[in-house]
Amino acid sequence: VQLVESGGGLVQAGGSLRLSCTASGFAFSTAAMSWVRRAPGKGLEWVSQIASGGTIKNYADSVKGRFTISRDNAKNTLYLQMDSLKPEDTAVYYCSILGDGRRGQGTQVTVSS
User: How many CB atoms lie within 10 A of CB 15?
Assistant: First the structure.
């Protein structure tokens, strides 16, 4: 299993970023996937998840209405569109197979006020 996140960076509050996660080594199209994050000095926080077919999506209350999860099974890629970013969204973001502890190396998102 390999998960490679990208797309993070430094953005001002109110801005947007789109994260990507390229997956390999497993049947991506049949796997429910999730995004989780770890803010500085805090534990791992679940952000969003998406069913294998892409039709069922769930979000943490803290990001609902601002973040959109999606996937392209033909490209083995998971996405997280993040809009109206807030300083409290600053964290390392990871993608993961839902229910599986394995994650990629993560991508840093920093939101300045």
Answer: 14
Q: What is the mean pLDDT of residues 52-81?
A: 97
47 within 8 A of 59, measured Cβ to Cβ = yes
CA distance 8 to 27: 25
Amino acid of residue 35: W
Return d(Cα 29, Cα 66) in angstroms, integer: 25
Q: Which two tokens stand for residue 95?
A: 């993608």
The CB-side HSE value for 16 (13 A sphere, CA atoms) comes to: 7
What secondary structure letter does DSSP report for 103?
B
Strand 33-38 relative to strand 44-50, pairing: antiparallel
CA 24 to chain centre: 16
Mean pLDDT of 66-77: 98
CA 1/CA 26 separation, integer angstroms:
6
Distance of alpha carbon 64 from its chain centroid, rounded? 13
